[in-house]
Amino acid sequence: MTPGLKIIYEDNHLIAVNKPAGVLVHDDVTGDVTLKEMVQDYIKHRYKKPGDVFLGVIHRIDRPVSGVVVFARTSKALSRMNALFSARKIEKNYRAIVWERTPQLEGRLTHYMIKDNAKNKSKVYNIPKSDRKKAILDYRMLSEVSHYIMLEIKPTTGRSHQIRAQLAHVGSTIVGDRKYGYRKFNQDRSICLHCRSLSFEHPVKKTPITISADLPTSEIWRLF
Asked: How many Cα atoms occupy the beta-carbon half-sphere of 92 within 13 Å?
């Protein structure tokens, strides 16, 4: 198995990994080895599959973010999972560590976003316009340790950098997220955002499933 690859769910249709921060889900201009390639290598060697291994990318989380990533092992599972994501029938649960408190201990953030592709950054606005996409997330404060605050985040929509940009917009920038205004990088260049779980109806078995990923073990996460 590929060193460091943490498989957290596997059947004939889906495979899920606890992605470490710093790893790309899918290829980009850097040419760095991707999570998809690691999982394909794992399947190829474990099941002694000759030739290319099919693996469908269903969703992505940002490179500096850790947590649950699910891939499809068949084209049927891929198309059905894509439909679930499009219909917003996937319940996403994140953990974030921020420095400044959110406006309330729990609540809903509704904003309107534009992706700046040149800067790979999203801009957040309070007022809707035709070129802005609606972004919604629910949050609640879980605990506070040494001025750090852990939040549970449940995004309804799936905009680019949504959680990072929306929290920064209300003054609660994620620890380590220099792109959105935090004062310094984390030592490993991660940000303190983790996809804790995904819950959905299995695309083939039609049974409820929740896939969970343990929190990172770096010093700041260990505070909680």
From this structure: 27
Is residue 174 within 8 A of residue 164, CB to CB? The reply is yes
Two structure tokens written together for 59: 């969703």
- State the Cα–Cα distance between residues 73 and 112, nearest whole angstrom: 35
- Each domain of the chain, given as residue ranges in start order, spans 7-222
- Alpha-helix runs per DSSP H in 122-194: 162-169
CATH architecture of the region 7-222: 2-Layer Sandwich (3.30)
Q: Which of 49, 3, 53, 1 is nearest to 23 (CA)?
A: 3
pTM of the model: 0.95
Mean pLDDT value of segment 67-86: 97
Under DSSP, the state recorded for 221 is H
pLDDT, tens only, 21-43: 999 998 777 778 999 999 999 99
